[in-house]
Amino acid sequence: MDAAERAARDRLGELIDGHIVTQIVSTAVRLGLPDLLGEEARTAAELAVKANADHSGMARLMKALAVLGLARESGDGTYQATPLSRGLRTGGESSLHGDAVMSGTCLYEAWGGLEFSVRTGSPAFENVHGQGLWEYLDAQPEDAAHFARTMGSSSGYYLSDILEVHDFSAARLLVDLGAGDGELVAQVLVRNPRLRAIAVDLPAMAVHTRRTLESRGVSDRCEVRAESFFDAVPPGADLYVLKAVLHNWDDEQAAAILRNCRAASAPDGRLLVIERVAEDTGGTLRSVVNDLAMLVLLGGRERTLREYDSLLGRAGYARTSHGTGAHGITVIEAAPVP
Ligand SMILES: C[S@@+](CC[C@H](N)C(=O)[O-])C[C@H]1O[C@@H](n2cnc3c(N)ncnc32)[C@H](O)[C@@H]1O
């Protein structure tokens, strides 16, 4: 075997072991280690007692976490927190704690069906769990809470991009459809004191939307409706917002959501579609993973700008502007075609 063949073999080994890395990270989070590490040095034995785990198993997991940068191993056999482990603690606004839990459990099981999704074009999540992701979250409040926190963390990550690309100050009534945990609408309300809003989401998520609006002190200016945007879209708003929603759905369903917005919109109303728009060719690891995630988890897809234009056109909208923030989120503004 020459050097190039060895390097290729080593790289393939790393790629094949990706599932093990996912489980190491998710297991550490499910054992509560990012919180237990705190800011003090701890031995694996101490962590094992606190996490109710086997001493030897914990010692081996901690070594793996140290190699991955999720703990720092000191020469005296103790471990300390690192910037990566702090990003997995419960409660932090940008924490990926919920994402890590789900990525090693219900989402992990769904990814085991990637072959099914590629062969059939249908979401493996439903095939594996016997129900779609939204129905599953409705029945699993703990996972719904993890999901809500992940959405909130993502909205926080992209907030500055969205505010930089779109000026919300002219709007008087904003409707956020599929508002998730409500972080975006809450932050927009905080910055625009004359704005009122209606946040629409399914019952399992609406609980979290309300909680966020209350914690941000803007619940008096935002009504939360626990209903489906396939059934009803509140009429007469200046601005309808769909953030990270259309990519969850296939073209027929996405067009149906847009048609409901179009029917509810005033003639001079505007629509914001906020998504990570796909490249025409190529892509990054993040963008191709996101696209496959939409297939496996929901039967949706990431779309190029041209594909969003085509969807908007099917529903009686035309794009008026678009801009992409520094961290890769695109805000597409569209107006109803008279
Ligand atoms: C990917 S999340 C995006 C959440 C939020 N917009 C954000 O960016 O953080 C999609 C949201 O759509 C909601 N959703 C799914 N089906 C829905 C329906 N039929 N009616 C209203 N909301 C729905 C989900 O509960 C979830 O909160």
UniProtKB/TrEMBL annotation:
UniProt keyword annotation of Chaperone present: no
UniProt xrefs under InterPro entries: COMT-like (IPR016461), COMT_C (IPR001077), COMT_dimerisation (IPR012967), SAM-dependent_MTases_sf (IPR029063), WH-like_DNA-bd_sf (IPR036388), WH_DNA-bd_sf (IPR036390)
Sorted UniProt keywords: Methyltransferase, S-adenosyl-L-methionine, Transferase
GO biological process: methylation
All residue ranges annotated as the O-methyltransferase C-terminal domain in the record: 111-317
Location of the O-methyltransferase dimerisation domain: 14-87
Tree of life domain: Bacteria
A Pfam family hit: Methyltransf_2
Molecular function terms from GO: methyltransferase activity
Protein name stated in the entry: Methyltransferase
